[in-house]
């Protein structure tokens, strides 16, 4: 299996991502680190520990990370994820507490200890990842790839042009993009498309197995409806985990990506340069060098839904 570490802000769809990473036979979830985003970091830690317990994986190390972005103040998304940050489903409090090391220390330890290079899956603002890269740059020697949920080629969600994770900590996202390792951007363009149909969500909810049932509850809470009569639920962040388990389901193009850092209405936008590649077009003359990122442009929705259900109902 592929060794993976998830950095998250659990978060309804982060929880869906954790459930998949725990249950997919092709993935070896080695640690989970928490950061402020959808809710405050202590809420994220609690939610993450609870999800891992419900998933039957209470042994996976979990660490508490950054309480706030590098520069911005915390701006949670409780309007989307509920007061507790995870849909207010009335889940039990976790039985354990997080690791006694912080997220950056746990990331460093687990990345360097892995016998095979690790794939990092950030599904949250990139604060922990940026702090890691600046504090322990040597970790990149044992990172296979970073597959991050964030950014948008087309339309944003936090603002007309900015996606929430990048908008919440734009400087951190810029540091992540310049990590110098292969990077896949699983942005809103694909993120919003992978929806589990209503009948499947109902079946998951009716399951007697706690982890499977939780996936159903979370999906039902998430919506959204393309078909109002039978809404289903979006996989959200879990799609980034699908992209690691089954990269063939994603169509990516290697393109320059720049995070807009200037104050104002474009702050947090990921500017993806879809013009012809340098050398192929004079359009690029004088263009500043930007990191090249494998940007997801298309996704095989049916394939990822099938992958998700097969793993979570296993
Ligand atoms: C991202 O923002 C969060 O609310 C979700 O968990 C996801 O990671 C989508 O913009
Ligand atoms: Ca998230």
UniProtKB/TrEMBL annotation:
The keyword Nucleotide-binding does not apply. It comes from the Bacteria. The keyword Hydrolase applies. CDD domains: nuc_hydro_IU_UC_XIUA (cd02651). Residues 4-305 form the Inosine/uridine-preferring nucleoside hydrolase domain. It holds the Pfam family IU_nuc_hydro. GO terms for molecular function: hydrolase activity. Keywords: Glycosidase, Hydrolase. PANTHER family: INOSINE-URIDINE PREFERRING NUCLEOSIDE HYDROLASE (PTHR12304), URIDINE NUCLEOSIDASE (PTHR12304:SF4). This is Nucleoside hydrolase. The lineage of its organism: Bacteria, Bacillati, Actinomycetota, Actinomycetes, Kitasatosporales.
């Amino acid at each position: 299996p592929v060794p993976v570490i998830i950095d998250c802000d659990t978060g309804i769809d982060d929880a869906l991502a954790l459930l998949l990473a725990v249950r997919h036979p092709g993935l070896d979830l080695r640690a989970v680190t928490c950061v402020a985003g959808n809710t405050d970091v202590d809420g994220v830690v609690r939610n993450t520990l609870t999800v891992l317990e419900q998933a039957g994986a209470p042994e996976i190390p979990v660490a508490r990370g950054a309480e706030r972005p590098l520069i911005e103040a915390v701006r949670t998304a409780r309007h989307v994820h509920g007061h507790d940050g995870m849909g207010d489903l009335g889940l039990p409090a976790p039985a354990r507490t997080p690791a006694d090391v912080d997220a950056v220390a746990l990331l460093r330890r687990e990345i360097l200890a892995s016998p095979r290079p690790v794939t990092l899956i950030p599904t949250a603002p990139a604060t922990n990842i940026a702090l890691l890269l600046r504090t322990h740059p040597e970790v990149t020697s044992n990172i296979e790839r970073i597959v991050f949920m964030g950014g948008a080629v087309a339309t944003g969600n936090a603002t007309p042009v900015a996606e929430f994770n990048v908008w919440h900590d734009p400087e951190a996202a810029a540091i992540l993009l310049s990590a110098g390792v292969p990077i896949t951007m699983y942005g809103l363009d694909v993120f919003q498309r992978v929806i589990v149909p209503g009948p499947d969500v109902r079946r998951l909810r009716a399951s007697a197995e706690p982890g499977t049932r939780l996936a159903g509850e979370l999906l039902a809470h998430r919506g959204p409806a393309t078909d109002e009569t039978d809404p289903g639920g979006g996989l959200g962040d879990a799609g980034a985990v699908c992209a690691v388990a089954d990269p063939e389901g994603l169509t990516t193009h290697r393109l320059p990506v720049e995070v807009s850092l200037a104050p104002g209405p474009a702050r947090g936008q990921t500017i993806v340069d879809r013009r012809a590649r340098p050398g192929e077009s004079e359009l690029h003359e004088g263009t500043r060098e930007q990191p090249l990122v494998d940007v997801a442009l298309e996704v095989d929705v049916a394939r990822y839904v099938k992958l998700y259900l097969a793993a979570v109902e296993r």
